Amino acid sequence: MRFIKSRNVVVALFFFGFVLGQAQELVVEPKPTALVTDSVKKPSRQKIDGIIAAVGDYIILDSDIDLAYIELSSQGNSVEGISRCELLGKLLEDKLYAHQALQDSTIVVRDSEINAMMDEKIGVMLEQIGGDMKKIVKYYNKKSEEEFRTYFFDILKNNKLTSEMQNKIIDDIEITPEEVRTFFKKIPKEDLPTFGAEMEVSQIVIKPKVSEAEKQKVIDRLNEIRREVLEEGASFTSRAVIYTQDRASSSNGGFYKVNRKTPFLKEFKDVAFSLNEGEISKPFETEYGYHIILLERIRGQELELRHILLTPKVTEEALKEARDKATLIRKRIMEGEISFAEAARTMSDEKETRTNGGVFLNPRTLDSKFELTKMDPALYSQVSNLKDKEISLPILEEDKLGQKQYKLITVTNRIDEHVADYSKDYIKIKDLALSEKRLNEIARWTNEKIGETFIKINGSYRTCEFVNNWVKK
């Protein structure tokens, strides 16, 4: 199928713009930002850097392509077969998105947000290389830490503008069952995709009970932090960095942008939207623990807020009680007293899986099926040796907040590798159809904006065969 075969390259390039912004590993051996030819892609120290393209107010240097190769390689990606023309095309796309985002008054990217993001990512890099900032500066071929930070800030801001613009283009795109059916029917039989072996997994989660005394300790501490901010002028942001147990927001002082569609817990959004600017909520409870929220700004339908999350501690005694309860539930299921699904519905402490009899949804696809080659290694190790309908012994693990809990797991279904079937694989086919529709909309938007935007490509790069009409022939 033409779409399936070309899609891997398109998607790889589509997400390349986020490589710098989301880098998780840093190769510490320095690599020069030197010329990489299309044929062999090896550095040459003879290069004289210069402007090779401009999009609106943005410029692209020849060395930017060299950096693109380095970043791809540092992430473990092969650069074989990727030409300089292809990378320039992707850089042109990124600059077009960023330029158009600056023209769009609904897209706001604050320097404070980028600085917090930069500090977090540099912190990760430093952890990986033993805290030596000089190695990072040398790796990126910069003369000083200040020059590197300026460069990195610009990269992160451009990436953020790009992602915000891309999200705006595709946010409202939906697909109907009829469109999915039409998409599937258009695929020639010989080009139907093959889906790998899969399994369906169910689980029962038993969480240790938290004492009322521990809950009150957390509430009292949040009230104290709230008082320090309101009465003593303490910084909510610094308190969030120090105390919050929300790993996702701790590095940026508990900051989030939230609207009614943001996939946060209803209790959290209800409190957030009840506040006035500058107001701090009283402590309130969600399944994650206890929160307080500071509402910083209201921007139309979007809130800019900070929050602090504290989770009550679990005692060893409570942990043992949870294990004993899980062991007893397993015994009752194995003796036929109750089914696994019924036990999950009536005794599991996890809301997400309790209502559907413990069926565990794939977080990537929101389907009940897990492709074995793409399954999370931790989950795979827990289920790989289980026979059909066999129930694991109680497994001790940590939840999203690092709190210990026990769970029982069973494999309810195994599916062999097979050619796509519309009725069995509807969700996967729907995802493919939606991806194609989004890519088509991005292509339409790109073609339209290319015509409206100042774009110039210099020198030999004008002979590149781009996917988009960057040279406006």
Describe, in plain words, how this protein is organized in 3D.
With 473 residues, this protein is an alpha+beta fold. Helix content is 44%, strand content 16%. It contains 15 helices and 15 strands. The strands form 5 sheets. Strands 11-6-13-12 form a 4-stranded antiparallel beta sheet. Strands 7-10-9-8 form a 4-stranded antiparallel beta sheet, sandwiched between helices. A 3-stranded antiparallel beta sheet has the order 4-3-15. Strand 12 (395-398) and strand 13 (404-415) form a beta hairpin. Helix 2 (62-74) crosses helix 3 (84-103). The radius of gyration is 26 Å and the shape is globular. The two termini are 30 Å apart.
Overall 3D form: globular
- Compute the number of helices: 15
Termini separation comes to 30 Å
Question: What is the SS-derived class?
Answer: alpha+beta
**Average pLDDT over all residues:** 84
Query: Percent of residues in helical segments?
Result: 40-55%
What strand line-up does the widest sheet have?
11-6-13-12
Largest sheet: 4 strands, antiparallel
Tell me the radius of gyration.
Answer: 26 Å
Low-confidence stretches: 1-47
Give the tally of β-strands: 15
Query: What is the string of helix and strand elements?
Result: HEEEEHHHHHHEEHHEHEEEHHHEHEEEHE
User: Beta-strand percentage?
Assistant: 15-25%
List the helices and strands and how they pair.
Elements lengths: L1 H15 L18 E2 L6 E2 L6 E5 L2 E4 H13 L9 H20 L7 H18 L4 H7 L5 H26 L6 H10 L7 E2 L2 E9 L5 H21 L3 H8 L11 E4 L7 H7 L11 E3 L2 E11 L2 E9 L5 H19 L5 H8 L3 H4 L14 E3 L5 H7 L11 E4 L5 E12 L2 E2 L6 H27 L2 E3 L16
Helix pairs in contact: 2-3, 3-6, 4-6, 7-15
